[in-house]
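Subject: Interface between my chains keeps coming out wrong

I've been trying for a while to get a sensible model of this assembly. When I model each chain on its own everything looks fine, but I need the whole thing in one frame so I can look at the contacts. Pasting all components below, labels as-is. Any help appreciated, I'm running out of ideas.
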Amino acid sequence: MEIVEFRPEREQYAFTFGGVAPVRKVVPGTMLRLWTEDAFCGGIRSTADLPSTSLTMPFVNPQTGPFYVEGAEPGDTLALHFAGLTPARGYGASCTIPLFGGLTSTDRTATLQDPLPERTWIYEVDRDRWTVEFQAAASDFRLELPMDPMLGTVGVAPGAGEVRSSLVPDTFGGNMDTPEMRAGATCYLGVNVPGALFSVGDGHYRQGEGEACGTAVEGAMDVTLIVDLIKGGGPAWPRLETDDHLIVVGSSRPLEDAWRVSQVGMVTWLSELYGLDKLDAYQLLSQTSETPLANVVDANYSAVTKVAKALLPQSTAYDGTHQQLREAAAAAGQ
Amino acid sequence: MEIVEFRPEREQYAFTFGGVAPVRKVVPGTMLRLWTEDAFCGGIRSTADLPSTSLTMPFVNPQTGPFYVEGAEPGDTLALHFAGLTPARGYGASCTIPLFGGLTSTDRTATLQDPLPERTWIYEVDRDRWTVEFQAAASDFRLELPMDPMLGTVGVAPGAGEVRSSLVPDTFGGNMDTPEMRAGATCYLGVNVPGALFSVGDGHYRQGEGEACGTAVEGAMDVTLIVDLIKGGGPAWPRLETDDHLIVVGSSRPLEDAWRVSQVGMVTWLSELYGLDKLDAYQLLSQTSETPLANVVDANYSAVTKVAKALLPQSTAYDGTHQQLREAAAAAGQ
Amino acid sequence: MEIVEFRPEREQYAFTFGGVAPVRKVVPGTMLRLWTEDAFCGGIRSTADLPSTSLTMPFVNPQTGPFYVEGAEPGDTLALHFAGLTPARGYGASCTIPLFGGLTSTDRTATLQDPLPERTWIYEVDRDRWTVEFQAAASDFRLELPMDPMLGTVGVAPGAGEVRSSLVPDTFGGNMDTPEMRAGATCYLGVNVPGALFSVGDGHYRQGEGEACGTAVEGAMDVTLIVDLIKGGGPAWPRLETDDHLIVVGSSRPLEDAWRVSQVGMVTWLSELYGLDKLDAYQLLSQTSETPLANVVDANYSAVTKVAKALLPQSTAYDGTHQQLREAAAAAGQ
Amino acid sequence: MEIVEFRPEREQYAFTFGGVAPVRKVVPGTMLRLWTEDAFCGGIRSTADLPSTSLTMPFVNPQTGPFYVEGAEPGDTLALHFAGLTPARGYGASCTIPLFGGLTSTDRTATLQDPLPERTWIYEVDRDRWTVEFQAAASDFRLELPMDPMLGTVGVAPGAGEVRSSLVPDTFGGNMDTPEMRAGATCYLGVNVPGALFSVGDGHYRQGEGEACGTAVEGAMDVTLIVDLIKGGGPAWPRLETDDHLIVVGSSRPLEDAWRVSQVGMVTWLSELYGLDKLDAYQLLSQTSETPLANVVDANYSAVTKVAKALLPQSTAYDGTHQQLREAAAAAGQ
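Reply #2:
Try treating it as a single job with all components included. I did that and got this:
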């Protein structure tokens, strides 16, 4: 397997999907060993570093990429299998940011109240225990939490000539912030432009479902992924597959629309896999759906629909791409 | 422990929270052995029984109760511990109902399209295997699914003199349709009227998160619960506690508001339990929240926020009421 | 024309739709001369009177009624023609109320910020100039505004045995807070229970569309209305007719659902009046709709769809009921 | 006054805000005489032309521009005064488009129903009577409606390096579809990039508030506008000023968030103009707001908040820019 390593210099960070020249061309089947900076561009290093002084808007959520995938054409399906996600720093950081987050007024859920104040928390990483430590700011409370590394942002260039901020997810993926984007998952994205031009970033050492305050335990990440390409069949919205689940992610507002998108996407997928008519698939989903929210903080919210494979008859989505990539990763020692 | 058995006659079904005379008075600490009819009033017995002909609106979702709890006063906390939920029939039923459900237009998400057609599915119960069987209508597809009995509807009489349909959840609980309402859970509800006047119903043998098509695997249920009363401390929105999780349920529209309610409720609860200020509790929740949706189909949607006790320091909510009721149930052979 | 006068004593105020015994029985064709207390139960009389100390929850928004209309049966259409609305006090009052309003967090759009503070404004009424005067609290700014009296709350008893707070509008009407409910308007409501049991209240001397802060220039009102009954044809949602407009009001959340309800209601009405198929009516409405929002502050928001009669061919809705009531009012000297 | 005329060739159409090289550089004070193609790129010419066959996605809603305004820097305020809007064709066209519109399921409000069918209506223009004629497709119904020309789409290049579809409005303006964008209005937009790079398009000969079916009476337009630049003071969201009203447009989802944005924007503006504190401005707006919806069909909905100048004390927004441009247009014979 071809292996490509890439660690972006600061001036190579991509802050948009689309509108950026590719940093590398890769052929399907390539393994990429990447490094991703955290969403703060590394600017939050202590509890004294606050967003208003340590961030330079709009230069947040830097992406590593984009990568041009040889042979990828609009309508195809890009498969990204995450073989490994490993924290690349000894700490993670999280903040409240004025006018951002799910339990505060924002630029869109606009109110006349004063915004919640900003505050920074630093989580020390313990690699041996595979934990991060929460330390309260206003009391002595401390709590060790398991690490559960994930990538908040995975996407391709959007269609229709658009260039979109890395902060707002949509049909092209982007900043979905779903904890399902773990090592072991394969993400399927519809290709919109020649070469697909995918990027990844926004490592989280841990995140709750919904990402209420707007930021996870943010940290630089060492990412190992395998790129694959399936001709045709590009899904309307991002899909994921793990050993255990089929997953569809919808991103819109209000939150019920994001959920509707993910549910209709799963009805479609179940219909394809099992030859069900749409009402039968709707019924089956109604009794088997799991719905861990991804983000309820961005300009588009992201909702997840999952179905456990253990409940379903054997089938192979995308001709077994996930299983093949899983085995390829194992063969490569991941 | 005092034990009260009650199986309502058809004319005793309650179709509202509030506005119904109590069927029994009970003292805190009583175990109730109840039977609940299914949401269809038993009218859907075969795939030929369709909602338009087999249901008599508005007489759906019948509740067993209400029960007057001696000593309960507005502002108190009613605790209902579900010691056992057992399917009381050999089949469950689910339907699509025109203009009802999450992936169709409704009387509120009103569109000009024809509604989705109605269809009924019957799930045979296998008690030995503890499964129900899904049978597709338009193909030969069959699938055995694990049973996971729960109550869709648990609530008290609302405040402000209101009488509310058993179909629409709100601060008083009601038709939240969360799969978390399983045997082993304790539900805490704020008391609004003397005696609390709680009812339960809407047994589901299994339900996906969100209850997309509007109905679960609906079935009559044998319910064993223990009633307890905590003076004062009535929560603004329903809370649940299991051996493994703390849970808050919010019900409103749009779905992000239901989620906000449940998240703010959990921030409040974590603050109470661990002496955290609200920003620290917000941060902690942001990294630990689980969010299995309850319903995205009723006039109010219900969103759930859960935190795993395994992640949190030891603490006792409501002075250990859940654990005490758990033990009392075990002592009573449940 | 039979004339009934009624001014409720304080203990006769109705705080719900449904659940209250009728104060009078009236026959269709009766003119009612009523007095309605303001939404604060008269408790806000100076800028020193603040909601937290001057209101006794949930006893706000008192209604005058209900009235039992002889012959009204479920499925019928109640017509209420407002012949005259005259301010009954020399001042109106408006307040910000913590956790209530459109530009603050609320119990449903829950955030962790401190709520906006409460403040009271008193508007002096000048009957000769037909104005009220706004006086800023934090500066010397004063502004004379035209009076435009309306009723915020008009409704019938809901169906399905419900009793609903006078604060939350729905299919039965209630607290819609549309400035269209002026003298000269006829309101059509679907009857849900024998006698219809309608009430009115919540006089506003003036209100902006949306009622952003949650309260209008609230004031006691002298109300003259004529009751009429049309057998059958009860609309799903409230309709209004004026000399100049056809109007439908939808109440739900999110606001687009309230709007959808009102738009679909108008498509239906235009189809009925002009024999249009639904796509033609949709197209016609798309080019003629006016949409003055009613309230974006209650647990259900209310959106209004209007079409100017001047744009439409002559037609008679409800067999000319509005015109007949208009003439009857004029004949009675209103 | 310098006058620049520009009529784009087909290959010069801009389909995005941002990402397009300017077609002209202009100095502040220039009058532009432009021609804009309709949103269908002229492809819908008869009722037999249907969207699925006559449109080539994503090449819809072509814009005329962008124009580089000399001296415009990020943070400045671009003022565009529309001196004249005149229909440039003898007919307008409107369509239903599958999965687009406010009263159908869409790619975001996703349901499992079949979409509404597509249909085209052609409106003949009568320049003498200044009307368009609606002709029903399914019956003989015809109706003459007054013309009321407006531009659906007016915007500048977005910030943060984004390139955005001309179909979706946001902070940069774009496809707001408000009927307030008539001749006589001045639109104020915050500048995000050097030169502002504004474009205009999407002429409507008439449109209802909300644009329910997703398309207005679409038609090519002759547009005369004057460009002006105010250093600094760029508003967060688009503002408009007419002889009669101050207006703020917000674009987001759900619709209440679009409304909140426009209301908070108006509270800010009133505070600036009259020295009111935010609670006083909130109160004043609550009693004076008008809210004609713009669009409830795009990926972001647009809500409008208007206040009548007749209600307010004299004041000069932006140092009287609107009045000056009005007079300049008059002096130029517009």
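Reply #3:
Confirming on my end. The two ends of chain D are 13 Å apart (CA to CA).
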